[in-house]
Design a protein that fits this description.
With 443 residues, the protein is of the alpha+beta class. It is built from 17 helices and 11 strands. The chain is globular and about 75 Å long. The relative contact order is 0.14.
Length: 443
C-alpha cells in the first residue's frame, strides 16, 4: 500500500503556515489571530491536537518539550484566554481538507462501489460545571437526583476506511436524528463524491428521516423497532420484498407537528417504498431490516452488512478511552467543542498511518504462518503518534518529514495484536466521572 499519508501530512503542515487559516479560526465578527503572539495560532492548534489529558500546565510543558523549546512560552491563563477566542469549527475545516485529499485519491475502499459508514450517537462525559449544565444539560438516573453534565455526540464512521467522516456535539436531549442529518451532509462538504450506504440502528428509520435520505441520494440499511410498520411487514408474502409504507393520518400527524417543512411534500407523495427483510441472526432473536437496496443484493448480504455496524461502537470506546477526548481542558463549553473536534481530527490522522501499518503487519504475519491474522495495537499506535506528532508536523523539510513518518509506521508495526472473535459481555456502567478538572494526572 502506498504511503499517501505522507503527502497529506505535508499539506497539513502547509495549511498551518499561511494567514488564511486565521479566517477559519476566528469567531464570527472577531478580529483575533492577526498579530504574532507568544503562542501563535499554529501552536494553539497543535497543542489541542497533541493533548494527552494532562493538566493545562503539564500539557503546555509537554508541548514545549516535544517542540524543542527551552521553556513554556505562555502562562496557563494566557493560553486558556487565547483558547476562548478560537473557533472550534477550525478543526472541522482541517478535518474536511484531510478527508477530501484521501477520498479524492482513488484509494478509498468500498463495498460494491458504496462507501460504508455507520451512524450512531453516544453520551459523553464533560466537566460537571454550571456552565456545561446550562449549555449541554444533565443526565439523571436513580443515583443522581441533581444530574451530571453530559453531552450528546453523533458520529458518522467509515467502516471500511476507518475515518470519522462527520461528528456533531450538542445538548444531551437533542434529537439524534437531527444531528445525524447534519453528519450525513458532511461528506459533501468534505468533497466526498462516492455514493454512500449508511447503516443505522433502531430509532433512526422514521418516515420523515427516510424521506430526507431519499431527497439527498443517501442509501441506507436500518433496523426498525419491532412495532415499526408492523401492518406492512405482516402483509408480506415472502421474507424479502418491497412494501409501500402508507403516509396515513396517524403517521403524518407526528410529522406535521415535528417536521412541518417536510409534511406537505410527504402528504403529496402518499407512501414510501422500501425493501423489508425478515431474518434470524445467530442469536436466535428474529429481526427485520429496512433498506432501499435493489433485489440484486441478497437478503443475507444485507443482513450481514448491517451487523458490521458494531464498528462505530468500538470506535466510540477508542475516542473516549484511548484518544481521551472526554478529558476536557477546562470548565467552559468552548473547550468541550474544541477538544472533541480536535481529537477526532487527531484520530483520523493516526488511522491514516495505521491503514498502511496494518497492511504491512498483516502481510508479515501471514509470511510467519501465524494462527490468527494480526493488526497493529491501536492503543500503542495512538501513544506513539501523540508523542511524535508535533515534531513531525512542524518539520519544514518534506524529505525529513517523510522519513519520520515512515519510521513511525515501522514502530507501529512492531506492536501487533491478533484479530479473533471475542465473546460478548454485559456492559458495565460507571456512574462517576472518569475525569476531573482539578485532579488530572501530571504524567
Amino acid at each position: 500500500m502506498k504511503k499517501t499519508y505522507i503527502r497529506r501530512f505535508w499539506k497539513f503542515y502547509q495549511q498551518l503556515i499561511p494567514p488564511a487559516l486565521a479566517g477559519h479560526a476566528r469567531k464570527e465578527g472577531k478580529n483575533t489571530f492577526t498579530r504574532r503572539r507568544k503562542m501563535p495560532l499554529e501552536d494553539i492548534l497543535l497543542c489541542c491536537l497533541a493533548k494527552k489529558g494532562l493538566t493545562a500546565v503539564m500539557g503546555l510543558l509537554s508541548y514545549a518539550r516535544r517542540k524543542g523549546a527551552a521553556q513554556m512560552a505562555i502562562s496557563k491563563q494566557g493560553y486558556l484566554k487565547q483558547r476562548k477566542n478560537l473557533n472550534p469549527e477550525v478543526f472541522t475545516y482541517l478535518n474536511h481538507c484531510y478527508l477530501e485529499d484521501f477520498y479524492s485519491s482513488g484509494e478509498a475502499g468500498t463495498w460494491n462501489g458504496y462507501l460504508l459508514p455507520a451512524a450512531d450517537g453516544s453520551k459523553a462525559e464533560i466537566p460537571n460545571s454550571a456552565e456545561n449544565k446550562k449549555t449541554f444539560g444533565c443526565a439523571r438516573n436513580q443515583n443522581t437526583k441533581e444530574g451530571v453534565a453530559r453531552a450528546l455526540v453523533s458520529g458518522l464512521y467509515g467502516l471500511i476506511n476507518g475515518f470519522f467522516i462527520g461528528i456533531q456535539v450538542s445538548a444531551v436531549n437533542t434529537s439524534e436524528n437531527s444531528m445525524a442529518k447534519k453528519n450525513l451532509l458532511q461528506p459533501g462538504e468534505a468533497g466526498i463524491t462516492q455514493p454512500v450506504l449508511v447503516l443505522f440502528d433502531r430509532g433512526y428509520p422514521s418516515l420523515e428521516f427516510i424521506n430526507f435520505l431519499e431527497k439527498n441520494g443517501i442509501h441506507y440499511i436500518s433496523r426498525p423497532a419491532p412495532n415499526d410498520y408492523a401492518r406492512e411487514r405482516e402483509g408480506m408474502e415472502t421474507e424479502d420484498g418491497f412494501v409501500d409504507i402508507k403516509h396515513d393520518r396517524y403517521r403524518m400527524g407526528h410529522i406535521k407537528k415535528k417536521h412541518p417543512e417536510s409534511y406537505r411534500e410527504m402528504e403529496e407523495k402518499g407512501s414510501t417504498r422500501a425493501r423489508a427483510i425478515k431474518s434470524r441472526p445467530p442469536s436466535g432473536q428474529g429481526t427485520a431490516m429496512l433498506t432501499d437496496l435493489r433485489a440484486v443484493f441478497t437478503s443475507s448480504q444485507v443482513t450481514g452488512l448491517y451487523f458490521k455496524r458494531w464498528g462505530i461502537e468500538t470506535k466510540y470506546n477508542t475516542l473516549k478511552n484511548k484518544i481521551k477526548f472526554e478529558s476536557v481542558t477546562g470548565n467552559a463549553p468552548i473547550y468541550v467543542y474544541q477538544d472533541f473536534y480536535a481529537q477526532v481530527l487527531a484520530y483520523n490522522m493516526v488511522q491514516d498511518i495505521r491503514r498502511c501499518a496494518d497492511t504491512s503487519a498483516g502481510e508479515a504475519g501471514r509470511q510467519k504462518g501465524l494462527k490468527h491474522p494480526v493488526k497493529t495495537n491501536e492503543n500503542i499506535a495512538i501513544g506513539l503518534f501523540k508523542e511524535r506528532m508535533v515534531k513531525i508536523i512542524l518539520e519544514g523539510d518534506h524529505y525529513r518529514q517523510a522519513l519520520m513518518l515512515s519510521q513511525l509506521q515501522k514502530d507501529m508495526e512492531k506492536h501487533v495484536v491478533p484479530e479473533r472473535e471475542v465473546p460478548g459481555r454485559e456492559r458495565k456502567k460507571n456512574k462517576a466521572n472518569k475525569y476531573c478538572i482539578n485532579q488530572k494526572y501530571s504524567f
